[in-house]
Amino acid sequence: MSSKSNNQGRAYEYICLHSLQDAISAIRKSQIIHNSSYKAAENAWNTLSVAEKALYTLSAKSTIDTIFAQCA
């Protein structure tokens, strides 16, 4: 796997984690534990362009919305 692909995956993990935490926080208290994996994902997220961040955010939000719709 290329370094770029690996970083894109980490960046997507970062925004999925935050989208999931936002959704859970609307129901009950939650928090994200910051560790070395989180820091690697955050660093990868910070390398993305504004357009890439917008695309990843939209994708993550729609994924989380789908998961929560299935639970209702």
Explain what you see:
It is a single chain. It contains three helices and no strands. The chain has 72 residues and is mostly helical. It is globular and about 40 Å long. Helix 1 crosses helix 2 and helix 1 crosses helix 3.
Descriptive terms for the model:
0% strand, 72 residues, 76% helix, mainly alpha
Give a nutshell description of this structure.
By secondary structure, the chain is an all-alpha fold. The protein has helices at 3-25, 36-45, 50-71.
SSE sequence, one letter per element? HHH
- Mean pLDDT equals 93
Structural class per helix/strand content? mainly alpha
The count of strands amounts to 0
Beginning-to-end CA distance, first to last residue? 37 Å
Query: How much of the sequence is in beta strands?
Result: under 5%
Number of helices in the DSSP assignment:
3
Q: What is the gyration radius calculated from CA atoms?
A: 13 Å
Q: Mind summarizing the main beta sheet?
A: none
- What percentage of residues falls in helices of 4 or more residues? over 70%
Report low-confidence residues grouped into runs of 5 or more.
none
Report the principal-axis shape. Answer: globular
